[in-house]
Design brief:
By secondary structure, this protein is of the alpha+beta class. Helices cover 26% and strands 28% of the residues. A hairpin with a 2-residue loop joins β5 (103-111) and β6 (114-115). It binds adenosine-5'-triphosphate (ATP) and 2-amino-6-hydroxymethyl-7,8-dihydro-3H-pteridin-4-one. This is 2-amino-4-hydroxy-6-hydroxymethyldihydropteridine diphosphokinase.
Length: 185
């Protein structure tokens, strides 16, 4: 993908839900980002994937999407928009990696100056566990087959990262179909 103009950033987001009505809740995410400012454009939204729970907590399967959004925002502003959507979905924080009405993670942010890297625990970039998560990588590949993720070992193709995951993790990510509305404008 091309580099965004100065002042703009392109963000890859992952959203997941496994409580309530996950399909309806996930539909709030591209709409919520698109509505958060006139500078914001939802560039691509993956299909919805049914995904086996990652992280070792026994719970229902999740539904996940990955989306790409652009706008004139700082990284912490992307996190804030996602957190506001989690609040709207009445998200509570109980068990780590446990069930969620909605979880919005900031996977990576690109600016004209390159990929943002941050060790701040409030917003660690790129997301430190994204490379391990088929539920992030496979939907991302659907909307950007050439995607790269900056890892501790440097930039890596998402296609290669997903191929390196155990087959059962990839097999646990099954494409269901599109969200029931279009956020692309
Ligand atoms: N890249 C990031 N995306 C989203 N949240 C982040 C990120 N980096 C740090 N955080 C922080 O992590 C905190 C906990 O987030 P959350 O409850 O969604 O974690 P989790 O989904 O249980 O686990 P994980 O971080 O492994 O996805 C948030 O309050 C946020 O400040
Ligand atoms: N498949 C899948 N597993 C998860 C997810 C998620 O979105 N999808 N979110 C979690 C919350 O931290 C924990 N585990």
């Amino acid at each position: 993908m091309s580099t965004p103009p100065v002042g703009h950033s392109r963000v890859v987001l992952s959203a997941g839900s496994n409580i309530g009505d996950p399909m309806a809740t996930l539909a709030l995410v591209p709409d919520g980002f698109a509505a958060a400012g006139r500078d914001i454009r939802v560039v691509a939204v993956s299909d919805v994937y049914a995904t086996a729970p990652w992280g070792g907590v026994a719970q229902d399967d999740f539904c996940n999407i990955t989306l790409i959004v652009e706008g004139t925002r700082q990284p912490h502003e992307w996190l804030r928009i996602g957190a506001d959507l989690e609040d709207q979905a009445h998200r509570t924080r109980e068990v780590r990696w446990g069930p969620r009405t909605l979880d919005v993670d900031v996977i990576t942010v690109d600016t004209a100056g390159g990929t943002v890297r941050s060790a701040d625990p409030t917003l660690t970039l790129p997301h430190p566990r994204a490379y391990q998560r088929a539920f992030v990588l496979l939907p991302w590949l659907q909307i950007d087959p050439d995607a790269e993720l900056f890892t501790d070992a440097g930039p890596r193709l998402v296609a290669e990262l997903s191929a390196a995951l155990p087959a059962d993790e990839r097999d646990g990510v099954r494409r269901i179909g599109p969200l029931s509305r279009s956020a692309l404008r």
